[in-house]
Design a protein that fits this description.
Largest sheet of chain B: 6 strands, mixed
Radius of gyration of chain A: 14 Å
Oligomer: heterodimer
Radius of gyration of chain B: 20 Å
Helix content of chain B: 40-55%
Number of strands of chain B: 11
Strand order of the largest sheet of chain B: 3-2-1-4-5-11
Shape of chain A: globular
Shape of chain B: globular
Structural class of chain B: alpha/beta
Number of helices of chain B: 12
Strand content of chain A: 25-35%
Number of strands of chain A: 7
Largest sheet of chain A: 7 strands, mixed
């Protein structure tokens, strides 16, 4: 387990970028943390590292935002789901078959549906307004 | 022409009959808000399951209240996107099936364009040619977009949110403050008699990361995730349970969202003749008040939809189909649900 303290949104983004470079292709990143803990900011860093030019907006409403060029990123947000039993019929598991990075916010709500080889990352707010503590479980 | 339309893009199951694009003969909305309230948002599986259960009776009621019988319908329309894939599919499939059964043309409509059209419904609606071009602010749980509208079917995106939608900022802010879902009405209610200047929250101007969306002016784009974080830190230091004034925190938070929306709308306004405010968040009284002030100051009209057509409804879908927009015929029958459809 590795724990890193970020002092700004930019630093959170470069932590994301650094981590991505160490991971195999098509990794599943399961992100855990409260509202405002820096999960979406982290995903913006992944997108930048992948060369995605589009703005990474919140997938809370749509559940899944797909960015296919130049390298696929599936940004999934389970905030509005109560638990794994509410995910049937969403086609959620199909995303794990696809090429590309899968970043899942509120991943704990998917329970056992998250693949075993997923990299789990925890986010906490720090003492200072821009401080975030990011911990990678591998 | 009488159009029956179905709308199931998110948490409302709706059907409506509209004559000639303007005259609303019936508009039925069966809300699932109570079902979703305990989750603080919309749960897609619950949403689609309930659309399946509610839709037949909602359609029956829309036709019955229209005063027409089935043979009096000239076209069937439904929303194809954007929205939740599984929910969209329910209304879209029902619309196609009904069109086949009644032997009428089918029309697939974009949900966002339907919101832009909502101001043209009803007896008091303005004439399109008297108000174009106008700037439209579309604000809802899933969307926050500024458009320049030259005419029906002729739109340009001027700005949009770079992170959370305004309605989502209300919902998540309400969750942080321990208020109920949906967050917009809950915060508005809590904010009555609160001091709007109690806390000065950021208006979403990002100091460090200037995120530009390709082709858009960053000063016309919105950001609400920083505001949510600012509220989080404020509440950490000043818990509401410790006697902190919920009314004033709500009022200050609402003011930050409303200021951000109004400020950018003002910046977007150039030679346009009016400002249109559409989408579910357009029901917020403080937002209406501030935009009315902006419109008066700039000597343009403020166009609002009837309150019945602000949040998701099917009348706006039927109206837009009735004026010849949307995908029609064979192409409509093969149109799939498109969760990330845009208007351009």
């Amino acid at each position: 387990m590795k724990t890193i303290t970020s002092h700004s949104p930019e630093e959170t983004q470069s932590i994301a970028s650094d981590l991505l470079s160490e991971l195999p292709d098509n990794s599943v990143l399961a992100l855990h943390g409260d509202l405002g803990a820096g999960k979406t900011c982290f995903v913006k860093g992944l997108a930048k590292a992948l060369g995605i030019k589009q703005a990474i907006t919140s997938p809370t409403f749509t559940i899944v935002n797909e960015y296919l060029q130049p390298s696929p990123l599936y940004h999934i947000d389970l905030y509005r789901l109560g638990g794994p039993d509410e995910m049937f019929g969403l086609g959620f598991e199909e995303y794990f078959e696809k090429d590309g990075v899968k970043a899942i916010e509120w991943a704990e709500r998917a329970g056992d549906l998250i693949p075993e080889d997923a990299v789990h990352i925890d986010f906490w707010t720090g003492q200072m307004p821009e401080e975030r503590v990011i911990s990678v479980r591998r | 022409m009488n159009v029956l339309a179905i709308e199931t893009s998110c948490d409302e199951t709706a059907a409506a009959v509209v004559r000639d694009g303007h005259d609303v003969l019936s508009s039925i909305v069966s809300s699932q808000v109570a079902l979703h309230a305990r989750y603080g948002g919309v749960v897609p599986e619950i949403a689609s399951r309930n659309h399946v259960e509610c839709l037949p009776s909602v359609i029956d009621q829309a036709v019955a209240e229209s005063g027409l019988d089935w043979s009096g319908l000239d076209m069937i329309a439904a929303t194809y996107g954007p929205g939740l894939a599984s929910s969209l599919l329910v209304g879209l499939s029902a619309g196609k099936a009904l069109a086949l059964r009644l032997d009428r043309p089918f029309c697939a409509i974009n949900h966002l364009e339907a919101h832009l059209y909502s101001i043209f419904l009803g007896p008091d609606a303005p004439d399109v040619k008297n108000v174009c071009p106008f700037v439209a602010l579309l604000v809802s749980g899933g969307h926050t977009v500024l458009y320049r509208v030259e005419g029906i079917g002729d739109y340009r995106v001027l700005g949009m949110t770079t992170d959370d939608a305004a309605g989502e900022a209300f919902d998540k802010g309400a969750t942080l403050m321990g208020l109920s879902y949906p967050g917009g009405p809950a915060i508005e209610k809590a904010a009555v008699n609160g001091d709007r200047a109690h806390i000065h929250f950021s208006r979403g101007i990002q100091k460090k990361i200037t995120e530009a969306i390709e082709g858009l002016d960053p000063s016309l784009c919105f950001s609400f995730s920083g505001l949510k974080t600012a509220l989080l830190y404020f509440l950490k230091k000043n818990p509401i349970a410790a006697g902190n004034d919920l009314a004033s925190v709500s009022a200050s938070y609402q003011e930050a969202i409303v200021d951000s929306l109004t400020g950018r709308t003002g910046k977007a306004l150039r030679d346009e003749r009016a400002i249109a405010l559409v989408g579910g968040v357009s029901l917020n009284s403080r937002l209406r008040e501030k935009l009315a002030g902006l419109a008066a100051e700039r000597n343009v009209n403020l166009l609002l939809a009837d309150r019945a057509y602000c949040a998701d409804n099917a009348a706006m879908v039927a109206g837009l189909a009735g004026v010849g927009r949307g995908v029609i015929g064979d192409q409509a029958m093969s149109t799939d649900a498109c969760p990330s459809a845009v208007v351009s």
